[in-house]
Structure formats: structure tokens, C-alpha cells
């Protein structure tokens, strides 16, 4: 395929795969797309090890690294653990009691996050990860939240690595370009994780027009080849997919969560502040309902405080769910987009790529038939 | 263009235009699409006159009629005026006072609705309108809300007229097919008016797969040719557009509302129950904010009670806004989708059609170039 993104990265398909699992990243890059590793759950040392592994797998093919840099953060983020009010800790204890999570449950090692997480969702923390990434042959640095700080852009530029930035509005897209972003990822409200309120269908053409000639990737609502074709019809030069990898063979998604993802319909997600403090789309679960609707809820804290509180608690929840606790299974959730309703089987990541590209080609052929071309 | 919808209706472009204005309906049909008149604001006698006029304009070319049949309605709908609680009437009086609407303001004749509106949003009311429609050479009857009642399907069938039904979920689509719908309109959450929560990008392919071989039209987020191409890439056989006609030359949209539509961005809509009692996307305004967020709000009534209360009140608001009242302008709003951010000029409806089709062709050509076809 020939798009600006294919040419820039020397890839066969303009398909970027965001994942926290190195295996998915390597598999998508190996299949002709471009894997992007979500780095926020790793310490700099851990990230270095993961990227060493990826380097050995992809043998020169391109991959990227994604960090989380919030535009505005709570000043108490420096020592987030201390800043969490007693009422919020008590509410978590109440949930653990109500849903039968033994308080001594160790957090699941698979559900990354918890301690240290909050500290990395800062400019300083992100910079440490970027420094590690730039010591590897990364093809792309992405910033999933907020405007990339000048230091991030400067270091990436110096290393000759393009910077991609996720946006949910036209205004943010313009701001990101001013801040130095080389690629804009226009992410619709149907996406998993932190999203705005404007849908992919509406957002993408507006962002494409606003930032031309900067290339735009479409994100949100894209998990099959028809959706990829739609994204390119909207003017995107490629797509950025996250949710579709969560149920792949390679994904380290905890089995209890994977089961919920496979069973969910597109009605089973919600944009909630209960997991990070900012609106993020995720599976609806007892966790989101209790925080967002229960009369006794103190309401979510601002980012990153809620993130610190929630990730540690949910890592324990997942560990308990893995041991079969029914209450824990009710609470367990994960960031995922509305495409979750399409995910009903476990496939290798490579197969997901090939099926998307095959369906994409079919959609383009159908379009040509419609116009009699 | 060649799609199932083009062949079924003998139209050039698979572009259906929903509008309350007969001029838009006739213009789109005349330009090679298919105009659909929203009938709910009319009495049977008025509808008959409107359709007479359209018949003379379109000279045999196809057009449709849309009615509103809620699946579940409040039993008090029979005499909705009496069933509105005093607290809700008082809240409207409070808003009129706060925003400086003289209580004696006559409702604007242009903003259709108000008295009689509630009674027509019932099976009986809709059936009366359908009987009128079927005395004209209509090519399509559409039901914008809920499952079409058997009587509607039976009468349309007997007259050889296909029935289209709007849906926001896969489950509703399946139910509509069982109820006898011949065409499904899969409407994403970004659409104006009554919508669900699933975006067009996610909803359309799922509905297409679920109801095949029944043809699906995509609705929500479609106001230019790239968006139309995206919809067809998703598997739709055509598109159903509403918002884009509100700012056309032909539209009877009150000038004060048109101004707000032209100025709005895609962030300026909200799904709110404040206008009909069911979640409907509309311009955010003092009306939606007061009902949805003000501490003193009694909360919206169920449909059709809120519709009766709101349409009459907002017809007065619009009349006051037309006379320049600043508070009235703050309150005024209208049903519109997130594409409102793309509407920044007044164009004839025919030009909108031609520009969409031209951009559509460009998008398809670009797709072929990408695949090297």
C-alpha cells in the first residue's frame, strides 16, 4: 500500500498497533505494520530490557514507543501516594469488602501498573523513558496525552525520530503541530483509553484539513478492514489500533479480563474518570458503576492520584479474579474501545493484520465497483 | 453510482436527506438523491398539503416520509398537556423569567411543533400520518424511533412501499428486521436527534453483518463526501443525512438558530433528554444546561411529556430570539449532530449534494491509488 505513512516508515501497511505487550509490537512490525509499545507501565530499566528484546525480534524493521504526558497534572503528583485522601482509600477498602477481595491479595504481576505508575505520568518520568527509547533504534515516539513537552520534541528531533501526538479535537491538533508533532493521531470518542467526545467519523476529516500537510492517523473504532478503509476514506494516511490486540494470542491480558472482553458487546463500555482521573473509555464493570454512580462514592480524584489508587487496587482485583473470586470478576475491567463488540475470538496478532488488510482490499474494490471505476 | 439502494429507488446517488422542510426534500430528490420529509410536526391535513406540493415539484422522482413511533411511551400520552407536573411548568416559567422571555410571546410559526406534537408521537398519531402519506406516490416510509407497529408495516406493504427503520444497536436492528423493516438505517451516537451511544464507525459494520442481505444506510457523522465514502467502505449501501440540510438556503431553520449552527464547533452538541424526554443530540445551550445541570432542575419528564413541554416553550424562545432577546438566544437550540462543526456556510441543497458526490469520487480514487489499483 502507498500512503505518506508507509513511505515515511518503509512499512507495507499503514497500520500502527498500540500495545503494552512486546510480543504484539514485534508481531505487528513483523507482519508489515508498525508496533508501538506503551511504555508507561515500565521503569526505565524494564523498558530497556523490553526494547532489547524487541530489537532482537524485529531485526531492523520499525517500531515505536508511546509515553503518557498529561498537559496539566495535579501538583501533588510528586508524591502521589501521600496525597490520596482517607475517604478515597476507605472507599476502595469498602469495595474490597463488598466484593470479597481479601485485603492481603498481592497485585497481579500481569496487570502492570500500581506503585511507581503515578511518578511516570509526569514530564520528568516520561523524559526518563524517552531517553531509554532513544538509545534504541525506535522509529517513532508517541505522546498519548497532552502536548509533548519541548524537551521530548527536542531530543526526538536530535535523534531524527518523528513525534506522534494523540488528539481528540481540532484545537488540540493545531496546538500539537505548533508544539512540534510530526504526525497527528486523531482519536475519536469510541476509542479505548483517554478520549474526547467527538467521534472518529466527524473528527478525522476536520483534523486532516486543519493540519495539512502533516499526516494524520485515525484512531477509535478501527478493528477490521472495512473500518480501516473508512478511516483512509476520511483522509487519514493510516490507522492506529489498540483494542483489537487485547484479545490476541500474544497479549498478556489477564485471562479473567480477556474473557470479559470476548463476551462484551459494543454497549458494554463507558467513558469514566474512575480509572485514571480523566475520562477514559473502558469496560463497564462494578468498579466504574461504584465510583460513578454509588451514593457513597467520594468521586474519582484528579489524575494522577486516581490512577495510582485505581491501578494498585485493580491489580489486586485482577489477581483475585484469576483465583476465581466472583466479586473480583465483577469489578475487573480494562481500557477498551467500542470495537470490543467485534472481538469474539483469540487470534494471533499476525492473523489480525492479514485479515484486516484482506478485508481492506475488498472494501476498496467494492468502492470502485460502486462508482463504476 | 451503483448500490442496492440506487437500484431499489432508481436514484443516481445513494444519499437520503431527512428534513422537515419540503423545499429541501424536493431539492435533494431533484439533484439525484432521495428526500425524506419529517412528518411529525404536521397535522394530517398539513402533511397532505406539503406532499401535494412535493408531488408537483419532483414530477415522479422518488421521495419518502418519516414518522416518529416510540417503542414505549408514557401511558399519560393520551392527554399529555394535563399530565405535566406543576414543578416542570414552574421550571419553564423560571427559565422564561431568568432569560427574559416575555410570557406572552407567541410561539414562532417557523419552529414547528408545540401543541398537537405530543399526540402525533403515538402509534395512533403516526398511523394517521402514514395513511396520508400512502395516498401520495411516496417511495419510502421511515420510522425514526422504536419498532414500526404492525399496522404501519402492513399498510406500507399493501401499498408496495418499503419501510426503513432507524436503529442505534445491533439488537434493535435484528428486532426491526423481525418486525418487517425492509431497510435499516444504522445511526451512530454522533447523529443529531435521538441516538444511542455507539458510534457510526463501530455500529455500521456490525449492523450490516447482522441483518444481511437487508440493505443498511449509515447515519450520523456524514456531511461531506469523505464521510459518505467512509460509510460505504463500512458496508453501507447508502447514507442518511439530516444535520447538513439545516444550514442550506432552502431550510426553514429560524435565522437565530441557523446563526448558532453556523458558529458551532463539533464540541458544541450534547446528548440530552431535555428536549424530548429521550436522549437526543442537539446544540448545547442554556436550555440543555439548565435542565441537565442546574440544582433547581426537576429533571426532564419522560417522552412525550417533555417533548410537549419543550417544543412549545422553545417555539416561544425562538420567537423571542428572532426579536433579538439575548437570553432567548442563549436558550435557543436545535437537534443537530456533531457534523455541525463542518457547517460554516449557507449553500443551496442541490450544491450540497453535488459537492458531496464530487468529494466522494475523489475519496474513492484516492483509495484506489493507495492500493495501487
TrEMBL record, chains A, B:
Keyword field: Flavoprotein, FMN, Monooxygenase, Oxidoreductase
Keyword Iron-sulfur: no
Keyword S-adenosyl-L-methionine included in the entry's annotation: no
Superkingdom: Bacteria
SUPFAM superfamilies: Inosine monophosphate dehydrogenase (IMPDH)
GO MF annotation terms: nitronate monooxygenase activity
Pfam families: NMO
PANTHER family: 2-NITROPROPANE DIOXYGENASE, MONOOXYGENASE RV1533-RELATED
Record protein name field: Monooxygenase
Amino acid at each position: 500500500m502507498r500512503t505518506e505513512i508507509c513511505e515515511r516508515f518503509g512499512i507495507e501497511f499503514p497500520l500502527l498497533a498500540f500495545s503494552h505487550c512486546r510480543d504484539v509490537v514485534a508481531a505487528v512490525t513483523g507482519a508489515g505494520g508498525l508496533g508501538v509499545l506503551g511504555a508507561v507501565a515500565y521503569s526505565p530499566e524494564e523498558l530497556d530490557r523490553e526494547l532489547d528484546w524487541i530489537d532482537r525480534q524485529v531485526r531492523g524493521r520499525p517500531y515505536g514507543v508511546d509515553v503518557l504526558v498529561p498537559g496539566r497534572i495535579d501538583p501533588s503528583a510528586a508524591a502521589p501516594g501521600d496525597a490520596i485522601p482517607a475517604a478515597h482509600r476507605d472507599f476502595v477498602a469498602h469495595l474490597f469488602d463488598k466484593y470479597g477481595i481479601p485485603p492481603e491479595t498481592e497485585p497481579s504481576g500481569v496487570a502492570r501498573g500500581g506503585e511507581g505508575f503515578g511518578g511516570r505520568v509526569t514530564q520528568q518520568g516520561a523524559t526518563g523513558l524517552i531517553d531509554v527509547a532513544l538509545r534504541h533504534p525506535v522509529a517513532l515516539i508517541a505522546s498519548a496525552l497532552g502536548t509533548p513537552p519541548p524537551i521530548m520534541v527536542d531530543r526526538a528531533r536530535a535523534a531524527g525520530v518523528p513525534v506522534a501526538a494523540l488528539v481528540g479535537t481540532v484545537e488540540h491538533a493545531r496546538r500539537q503541530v505548533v508544539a512540534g508533532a510530526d504526525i497527528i493521531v486523531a482519536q475519536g470518542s469510541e476509542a479505548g483509553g483517554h478520549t474526547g467526545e467527538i467521534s472518529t467519523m466527524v473528527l478525522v476529516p476536520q483534523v486532516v484539513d486543519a493540519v495539512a500537510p502533516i499526516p494524520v492517523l485515525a484512531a477509535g473504532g478501527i478493528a477490521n478492514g472495512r473500518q480501516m478503509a473508512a478511516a483512509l476514506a476520511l483522509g487519514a494516511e493510516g490507522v492506529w489500533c489498540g483494542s483489537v490486540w487485547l484479545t490476541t494470542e500474544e497479549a498478556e491480558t489477564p485471562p479473567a479480563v480477556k474473557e470479559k472482553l470476548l463476551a462484551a458487546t459494543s454497549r458494554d463500555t463507558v467513558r469514566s474518570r474512575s480509572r485514571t482521573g480523566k475520562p477514559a473509555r473502558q469496560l463497564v464493570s462494578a468498579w466504574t458503576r461504584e465510583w460513578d454512580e454509588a451514593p457513597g462514592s467520594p468521586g474519582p480524584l484528579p489524575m494522577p492520584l486516581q490512577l495510582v489508587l485505581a491501578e494498585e487496587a485493580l491489580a489486586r482485583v485482577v489477581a483475585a479474579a484469576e483465583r476465581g473470586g466472583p466479586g473480583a470478576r465483577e469489578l475487573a475491567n480494562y481500557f477498551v474501545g467500542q470495537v470490543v463488540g467485534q472481538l469474539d475470538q483469540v487470534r494471533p496478532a499476525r492473523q489480525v493484520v492479514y485479515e484486516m488488510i484482506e478485508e481492506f482490499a475488498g472494501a476498496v474494490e467494492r468502492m470502485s465497483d460502486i462508482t463504476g471505476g
